[in-house]
Every structure is written in structure tokens, then in C-alpha cells.
Design brief:
The protein is of the alpha/beta class. The chain has a 5-stranded mixed sheet with strand order 1-3-2-4-5, with helices on both faces. The chain has a 4-stranded parallel sheet with strand order 7-6-8-9, with helices on both faces. Helix 6 crosses helix 10 and helix 8 crosses helix 9. The chain is elongated and about 85 Å long.
């Protein structure tokens, strides 16, 4: 049931760390506090995933055999009450890390805590998943590395100026690994895209005039000469026609994002991806 962070079973000066989750937070706080005393090298034993009264009382009884301090993070009031009352009866000093903080937040917010062990770890995992997704979106932007497309949750296809990159970054902040690839009539699609299932392919399109307006503004910013094909209607119509053909051939789910906010486009993609997951 227990995990020894350092050798020591109830020896003088030992600290028991008890948690209904993995106990990393409690051990981190304990080590920070212990560092203020002498060398700070107190034997620390961690007891993770304590979820019932019997296990808790067993730990408390073991602690009574030595000069032990119990530090605990228990979200269930029943377990916290048991720890507090039993330890007090036996004269064992304790430190409740979680309870007082939750109670203070509850008073200020007038909200009830969820009382679910391990939420911090789940939040950490979600954070790192989002960071990984952002890195993936950057590395896979604008068709930089077609070999990495196989690990994408979705790939956005479309001609220039249909907001592929900002939509990918928005999806990444939601933990979705999104890549994008520009559709250019003169450039053949890489086999990595052709081999992907249609459930992971999203085609972005828009009204030709809408794209023309954006491209002309962009042309001024980057200093293109007037009359450059990039910002001409004939060229845009040719690209849109090619994109439509690619969408049909690959069976892409197509979204017309003309004057649509990035958030709305991303929301529609998330809905499409969720439906695909539910159909599996």
C-alpha cells in the first residue's frame, strides 16, 4: 500500500505523506517545509491512493509506533475527519494541506468543491497535451513536414487565405493535433495526405470575392506588385476549382468559412471530430 520515498518506517523524525491520489503535491510541500530544519533530510514515506477508512486507520496505527508527523491531502470530508480525530486521540501531529484551502475557496466563491481525488494530475495532463498540440501545429504548419501528418487528429486543406493556420492554433489550444496543407494546382498532393482517412480531413473554402479582398490587403503588406496573380480573381477561381476537386476526391468534410470567426470554424471542426469518434 505504501511507497518509500526514502528509507524509514516510523523512525524518530519520520514524516508520513498520505493522499487519496498519487501524493506528489503533498510530498512536494513536505519536502519544502522539511528543508527549513537542519539538513532537511527527514525520512519520508508516501501512502498514495488511500480511499477507505480501514486503510487510513492502519496508517495512523503504524504512525503511533514512532515519532511521526502525518501530512495529508484528502478531499473526502469523511476521510479528513477520520484522520483528524484518530490522530488527535493518539497524539500524532498532522498537517492538512488540502482541507483548509478548499474550505476557504468554498467560502469566498460560495461553491461546493467537486471532491474528486486526482484532479490536479488530470489538469496537468491536459495542460501538457495542449502544449504538445501547439508544438505539433507549429511543426506541421503549411505542409512543412508531410511525414508527420499520420499522427494528426485532423488535417486542414485549403487555398491561401482561408485561415488554416489560425484555426489549427485554436484547435491546438483545445488539445487537438491539427496540421494544415496548402492546396496549389501546380503542386501534387503528397501520398501521406492521400492515404489519410476522410474522417480526419477538413476542407476549408470561402467565397472568391472574400478571398480576393483579403489577398489584396495581404499583397500590400508584403509588397507584391499590382497585378500579381496571387491577388487576381482568375487565379483565385482556378485555385478554388482545384480545391473543390481535391475535396471531392478525398471525401473531405468541407466548411465554408466566409466571414466566419476562427472560433466558429474551430467549433464546427470539433463537432465533426466528436461525431467521428462516436461513430467508431
Amino acid at each position: 500500500m505504501s511507497h518509500d520515498s526514502e528509507v524509514g518506517r516510523g523512525r524518530p523524525g519520520s514524516i508520513f505523506v498520505v493522499s487519496d491520489s498519487i501524493g506528489e503535491t503533498a510530498e512536494l510541500v513536505t519536502r519544502a517545509a522539511a528543508s527549513q530544519f537542519d539538513s532537511g533530510r527527514f525520512p519520508i514515506r508516501r501512502f498514495p491512493y488511500v480511499s477507505d477508512t480501514a486503510s487510513l486507520l492502519e496508517i495512523i496505527n503504524e504512525a503511533r509506533a514512532g515519532n511521526v508527523v502525518i501530512v495529508y491531502t484528502l478531499v473526502e470530508p469523511r476521510l479528513r475527519d477520520t484522520m483528524r480525530e484518530a490522530a488527535h486521540t493518539l497524539g500524532i501531529p498532522t498537517a492538512d494541506i488540502m482541507g483548509p484551502v478548499m474550505e476557504a475557496i468554498a467560502r469566498v466563491t460560495e461553491m461546493a468543491p467537486r471532491l474528486e481525488p486526482g484532479l490536479t494530475r488530470r489538469l496537468d495532463e491536459e495542460y501538457f497535451r495542449r502544449v504538445e498540440a501547439v508544438e505539433f501545429a507549429v511543426n506541421q504548419d503549411d505542409g512543412k513536414n508531410p511525414r508527420g501528418l499520420e499522427s494528426a487528429d485532423c488535417v486542414l486543406l485549403g487555398i491561401s487565405r482561408v485561415s488554416k493556420t489560425p484555426v489549427c492554433m485554436y484547435l491546438a489550444r483545445r488539445g487537438v493535433k491539427a496540421a494544415n496543407f496548402p492546396l496549389i494546382p501546380e503542386v501534387e498532393l503528397p501520398p501521406e495526405i492521400v492515404s489519410l482517412p476522410s474522417s480526419r480531413l477538413i476542407g476549408l473554402t470561402a467565397d472568391a470575392q472574400y478571398i480576393l479582398d483579403i489577398r489584396r490587403q495581404r499583397a500590400k503588406v508584403i509588397g507584391l506588385r499590382p497585378g500579381a496573380p496571387y491577388a487576381e480573381m482568375d487565379r483565385i477561381l482556378k485555385e478554388l476549382e482545384y480545391a473543390d476537386e481535391v475535396f471531392r476526391r478525398l471525401g473531405c468534410h468541407v466548411i465554408d468559412m466566409t466571414r466566419m470567426a476562427i472560433e466558429e470554424t474551430a467549433s464546427r471542426i470539433l463537432e465533426f471530430l466528436r461525431k467521428g469518434e462516436n461513430s467508431v
